[in-house]
Design a protein that fits this description.
The protein is mainly alpha-helical. 81% of the residues lie in helices and 0% in strands.
């Protein structure tokens, strides 16, 4: 049972991060309706995809170092929310609507970051248990290279 939970905890944040990056990338498709010409559209598309490129790079790092994904995705979600509050402070009448739309981006990023954090904690605890098993085997004189379950 613990292995299934560990496996799910390993894959769920990564899959959510991929879906989240694809979702963020969808917002860049509006550049095709701007009538900017080929090079203008290409430049605008690249500019709109910068957050997706950054998050993809972070996901690559987070694939091995979950704590990096936890910190980055949580920070991204919180910063997006804070930035939205600051940007929408000029129009207080629409603040509720704007914050609602902001949550569509902020909450999935924060949830993904929290799941990366849980995965990091789980791996850390499993690593401590594994080290303890290796110490016990050394004391007993058993071969350390045997499979440790």
């Amino acid at each position: 049972m613990k292995k299934k939970i560990s496996k799910a905890l390993y894959w769920i944040p990564r899959i959510l991060a991929i879906i989240f990056i694809l979702f963020i990338s969808l917002f860049s498709l509006d550049v095709f309706d701007m009538g900017l010409g080929f090079w203008g559209t290409l430049f605008a598309l690249f500019t709109h995809l910068i957050p997706s490129f950054l998050l993809t790079g972070i996901l690559i790092v987070a694939w091995k170092y979950e704590i990096a994904g936890a910190i980055t995705f949580i920070t991204f979600g919180l910063m997006h929310f804070i930035w939205t509050i600051i940007a929408s402070s000029r129009d207080a009448t629409r603040l509720g609507v704007i914050l609602g739309w902001s949550m569509i981006i902020a909450i999935p990023a924060i949830i993904t970051g929290i799941l990366f954090w849980f995965n990091w904690k789980n791996r850390k605890e499993r690593g401590a248990v594994r080290k303890e098993k290796i110490k016990r085997r050394k004391k007993k004189g058993k071969n350390i290279e045997e499979e440790i379950e």
